[in-house]
Amino acid sequence: MAYDEGLAERLRELLPDRPGITEKKMFGGLCLLSRGHMFVGIVGEALMARVGPAAYEKALRRPHARMMDFTGRPMKGYVFVDPPGYEEDRDLKRWVEESLKFVSTLPDK
Predict the structure, then answer these.
(1) Which of 3, 39, 48, 102 is 20 to 30 A (C-alpha) from 55?
(2) Burial of 19 per CB tally in 10 Å (0-12, 13-18, 19+)
(3) Structure confidence at residue 49 (pLDDT)
(4) SS3 letters for 50-71?
(5) How many C-beta neighbours within 10 Å does residue 30 have?
């Protein structure tokens, strides 16, 4: 499955000076990792955001967010965001920042 290269470039532009950020092709798409922890990714045109269990229900209530279930089972703590939900730069930045904030609470890998 191909992923949205335009979205990939927008994500890269948001994170140019962040140490420890890497990219990895996963899930048929692209994932960005911080200190080895996936925090956002792209599957097709959907943004995958790791918000953590505590923020999961709140994230699902945001416009254009839905449960991440590509394995057939919901993955709590992760959401898919459809393109209208990250179309504006401020919305994309908010998803990225919230996801980075969550993975910053996890131990180093």
Answers:
(1) 3
(2) exposed
(3) 98
(4) ECCCCCHHHHHCCCCEEECCCC
(5) 21
Q: Which pLDDT belongs to residue 1?
A: 57
Domain residue spans in the chain?
A: 5-85
Residue 97 — pLDDT band, cuts 50, 70, 90? very high
pLDDT tens digit string along 14-71?
Answer: 998 888 899 999 878 999 999 999 999 999 999 999 999 999 999 999 999 999 987 7
Question: Closest Cα to residue 88, out of 76, 100, 96?
Answer: 96
The closest of 22, 15, 11, 21 to 49, measured between CA atoms, is 11
For residue 93, which amino acid is it? K
Tell me the CA distances in angstroms from 96 to 2, 71, 72, 73, 82, one per residue in order: 21, 23, 25, 24, 14
- State the residue for tokens 């839905």: 66
